[in-house]
Amino acid sequence: MLFGGAVALLPIFARSILHVGATGLGVLRAAPAVGALLAAAAITRRPMGRHAGRLLLVVVFAFGASIVVFGLSRSYPLSLAALAVSGFVDLYSMNIRATTVALASPDRLRGRVNAVEMVFISASNQLGAFESGLAASLVGTIPAVVGGGAMTMGIALGWARLFPALAGVDRLETLTPAVAGSTIE
C-alpha cells in the first residue's frame, strides 16, 4: 500500500479523468471492498494450499499491476474492475501475511509482533496516501499512480530474489516459530 495508494487520488480520477462525479467516486471507493469480499468468499470456499510464499509475491505483483491498469485507464468499467482486482489480491496478501506472522512468531512474542504489524499496516495506508499525493503534485496524477504500481511490482520481484526463504514457504499450516539463529522453514 505504500506505493500503491491510488485510492487517495480517486477524487481526481472521478472528477477530471473519468468524469463520473460524486456517485461515480463512491462506486470507485467501494470497488476494492467488493474485490476483497469476493476474495474472502473464495478463501472460505477453497483455502490456500501449497506455495503460499510464491502466491504472496504473485498477489503483490498483481496488486501493482492492477494499480498500473487503473492509472492508465480512461474507461470507468475498466477502472472499477482494476480496483476490484486490487482489493481481491490485497485480501489474499493480507491473509497470507497475517497467518505467517501469527504462526512464525514465538508464543512469548506473538502479541508484540502482531501489535507492531498492525501499526505498520495502519501507517502504510496513511503514508501511502501521503506519498501518492506528494508524487501527484510533483509528477502528475497519472504518472504517480502508474509509477507507484510499477514500484510495487518491482518490490515483489526484488523480494523474491532478496528473500528466497519467503518465496519458498509452502503450506502456511506447517510454519513454526523461528528459533534464534535459524532460518524460516
Outline of the structure:
The protein is an all-alpha fold and 185 residues long. Helix content is 75%, strand content 0%.
Descriptive notes:
This protein is mostly helical. Helices cover 75% and strands 0% of the residues. The chain starts with 9 loop residues before the first helix and ends in an 18-residue tail after the last helix. The mean pLDDT is 89.
- The average pLDDT value, as a whole number, equals 89
Number of strands: 0
Distance between the termini: 27 Å
Proportion in helices: over 70%
Class per helix and strand makeup: mainly alpha
Tell me the Rg in angstroms: 17 Å
Give the strand content: under 5%
Shape: globular
Largest sheet: none
Low-confidence stretches: none
Count every helix, treating DSSP H or I runs of 4 or more residues as helices. Answer: 7
Following the backbone from N to C, one meets helices and strands in this order, namely HHHHHHH
Core attributes:
185 residues, mainly alpha, 75% helix
What's the SSE blueprint?
Blueprint lengths: L9 H8 L3 H25 L6 H21 L3 H29 L5 H30 L1 H22 L1 H4 L18
Helix pairs in contact: 1-2, 2-4, 3-4, 3-6, 5-6
